[in-house]
Amino acid sequence: MSTQALKNGKTIQELTGYTDSIRFTTADLTTAGTTQTLTLDINAGHQVRSVAYKLHTAFSGGSATSVTIDVGDGSDPDGYIDAESIFTGGNAYGPSAADAELGIKGKVYAINDTIDFLFTSDVNVNLLTAGDIEIFFNIVDVDQFAGRQVS
After folding, report:
1. How many CB atoms lie within 10 A of CB 10?
2. Are the beta carbons of 128 and 29 closer than 8 angstroms?
């Protein structure tokens, strides 16, 4: 018997696109230090996969010569995106191929956790005057599909 689980009337195959995004600008960077971590809550039973970003405006200002972002969680701080340059001249889209494998396979969270976004610069991050990045995820609630069938 052929079965398929549905989420809001869509098959798993139809849910392979991005379901969530979060956007950060320099207004979010308030730390008088060279690093700042911002977070997004993830519930137990959720799978995070297909992570990508769009750099709308490169981060710059305050005499900075570099700005990078890591995206991960408490067990792997750069598990999704590792030290991608989001400074002037950085890639408009990412992550690079080196980071793509985990983003494609994804990770199912057994307990509530956070996705961590670590911004690092060679100047205090609150001195940056320009920058806008949007990070995209495909987040699936695995528990929502467990034991459900449509024939």
Report:
1. 13
2. yes
Domain 6-145, architecture per CATH? Sandwich (2.60)
Q: Cα separations (Å) of 117 from 2, 6, 12, 114, 146?
A: 40, 31, 27, 9, 30
Average pLDDT across the chain, whole number: 85
pTM of structure: 0.84
Ramachandran sector of residue 37 (left: φ over 0; alpha: ψ -120 to 50; beta: rest): beta
DSSP string across 11-65: ETGGG-S--EEEEEEGGG---SSSEEEEEEEE-TTEEEEEEEEEEEEEEE-TT-S
Q: Which has the higher per-residue pLDDT, 145 or 114? A: 114
Distant-in-sequence contacts of 144-148, Cβ < 8 A, 24+ apart:
144/7, 145/5, 145/7, 145/12, 148/5, 148/6
18/139 Cα distance (integer angstroms): 8
The tokens of 21 are what?
């995004």
pLDDT bin (cut points 50, 70, 90) of residue 140 is confident
Domain residue limits, the chain: 6-145
* Among 44, 42, 97, CA closest to 72: 42
CA distance 124 to 46: 34
